[in-house]
UniProtKB/TrEMBL annotation:
The lineage of its organism: Bacteria, Bacillati, Actinomycetota, Actinomycetes, Kitasatosporales. Keywords: Signal. This is Secreted protein. Residues 1-27 form the signal peptide. PROSITE patterns: PROKAR_LIPOPROTEIN (PS51257). It comes from Streptomyces capitiformicae.
Length: 126
């Protein structure tokens, strides 16, 4: 029955010359600042991997090492960094610093976050 409703709705839209558009990635709401002024909340993919850092410095993401998983949604992030390993999406080299659900510090790929991440502060301001 549901299938027939979908077909009928699509047929009606075509008949009257309208289209049903899905929201685009650019329409995503931005991340919002936490009350502490340090962290940002963003809507993200539940179950996304959190990657470790290169070396002991915690400064740059290591796309080859998973240190935990982020099951929460929304989740909080400290900052963002661009110009790192390719992840794709609208910000193809952006990673965000966070803490995985197991307490490990790490980085999430921008593509694992539904919210627009531009509002998140830069880790290394220029």
């Amino acid at each position: 029955m549901r299938f027939r409703w979908l077909v009928a709705t699509a047929g009606l839209a075509a008949a009257i010359g309208t289209t049903v558009a899905s929201p685009s990635a650019s329409a995503a709401a931005g991340c919002w600042q936490h009350a502490d002024g340090i962290r940002y909340w963003c809507n993200n993919v539940s179950g996304a991997p959190v990657y470790g850092s290169i070396g002991n410095s915690r400064l740059y993401p290591n796309p080859d090492v998973v240190v935990g998983t982020m099951y929460s949604n929304p989740s909080w992030f400290y900052c963002k960094v661009d110009g790192q390993a390719y992840v794709g999406g609208p910000h193809p080299t952006r990673w965000l610093r966070t803490v995985a659900d197991n307490g490990q510090y790490g980085w999430m790929k921008d593509t694992a976050i539904y919210s627009e991440t531009d509002p998140v502060r830069d880790c290394y301001p220029t």
